[in-house]
Amino acid sequence: MFKIFSFGTRNFSKCALRYQISKERVELIEKYLKKIRIFDEIDLFPADIDWSYVLNPINLTSIDENIRTRKSNGDIIGLHRLNDDLKEALKTGDQHYIETIIEAMYHKAVQLPNISDPSSPIGAEENAECVMNVGEKKGRSPTVDQIAKMYGWLREDHISLYSTQRSYILKRELAELENALVRYTLNYLNDKGFILVSVPDILHHSIIESCGFATKGDRNQVYKLDFMNEYGKYCLSGTSEMSLAGLLKNRILNHDELPLKLCAVSRCLRAEVSGSEREGKLYRLHEFTKVEMFVLTLGDSKISSLMLENIKEYQTELFSDLGIHFRVLNMPTQELGSPAYKKYDIEAWMPGNQFYGEISSTSNCHSYQSRRLHIKSSRDKTDLSEKQSYVHTLNGTACAVPRMLTAIVESNWDMV
């Protein structure tokens, strides 16, 4: 496999060396980009990109293949055309034209997706590989909506008059179960060495974009604040992964501080589209509570891949004691989004409507996010002569409360 954003000098074959972009052109691009603070108000520089690699024609085919297998919007062909334009512009000496092309090249390059783990299945969601089944699949039960209505646990009438239609209000035992689930999860994560962090739910749009989530265009799930004034720069967070990543922006950590394991409880706000009716009222929501894990490791694929397996183990241990049946899926390339190198989804059996629904996921993002947020590690961060390298970031859902409530209540209804 190839590496789109790997850092440092590469040892290519003699054949490849003949096709490498000139060192002078790379230095010109990097020099110009260093002058830019794309979002000066939050002290964020452009992402670090390995221009020598992405602009090398010998790598074009493999990069394009990765884009196609992930069904990404990346445009490596367009990037190479702009590089040809830059070559001609340099002959003219027109500085404004040169800088305009470099900026266009940057915006193309930053849209390229992460590399894909060779063990990830190729293609769409139906190609997901089931790697584990846990628990006994239960027969049909009443749905959580029906059960909650019987006991007055869920308020749904007239909610659209003061909130969004896909919101919820829990009462009595169901509200108590929500709090109990959060506390159960946090106690477990504390025992595993996670540090609890309280995070904001309003973030600068560049932080969200640096994590690999689009905030512009019609096809995204991000709520944006009023675009006509200062608040238009800010969005509502869809997961605390974004806040935790932003917290570490521009940080250099000592090697012995890694792995750094953080967790947070937050409200997640997403412009979710309607699903099928059988999903129920607590499945696809515009706002919900979630406990999230966020981990930094050394920038070594073996280390971060092992951490991904550890996070998956944490998730399966958490869910195994809750009386639900679930399966773990190795997700195919088209389900990885832009940032993930490898991803597992966990789907629980929902007895009320007899379907598997996603309750959790975990992803290894390699250096995709750290290169955009400039998060590095060093043997001694106080010694500027020490080599610095980008960390790898991983995330995982520890408890998405409403979907867990659905699975738990329906799966254990015969025990009530």
Give structural notes.
With 416 residues, the chain is of the alpha+beta class. It is built from 13 helices and 15 strands. It has helices spanning 14-17, 23-34, 51-54, 60-69, 76-92, 95-109, 144-151, 172-191, 205-210, 240-247, 301-320, 368-373, 401-411, and strands at 129-134, 154-155, 169-170, 195-196, 202-204, 234-236, 252-254, 260-269, 287-297, 326-330, 342-350, 355-364, 376-378, 388-390, 392-400. The strands form four sheets. An eight-stranded mixed β-sheet has the order 1-10-11-12-15-9-8-4. Strands 7-13-14 form a three-stranded mixed β-sheet, with no helix packed on it. It has a two-stranded antiparallel sheet with strand order 2-3. Helix 5 (76-92) runs antiparallel to helix 6 (95-109). It is elongated, with a radius of gyration of 23 Å.
Taken as a percent bin, the fraction of beta residues is 15-25%
List unreliable stretches of 5+ residues. 1-19
Q: Specify Rg, calculated over alpha carbons.
A: 23 Å
Mean pLDDT: 88
Give the count of helical stretches: 13
Structural class: alpha+beta
Cα end-to-end separation: 52 Å
| Number of beta-strand segments | 15
Q: Give the overall shape, derived from the CA principal axes.
A: elongated
Q: Can you write the helix and strand succession as a string? A: HHHHHHEHEEHEEHEHEEEHEEEHEEEH
Largest β-sheet summary: 8 strands, mixed
Measured as a percent range, the helix fraction is: 25-40%
- In quaternary terms, these chains amount to single chain
Q: How is the largest sheet built, in terms of strand order?
A: 1-10-11-12-15-9-8-4
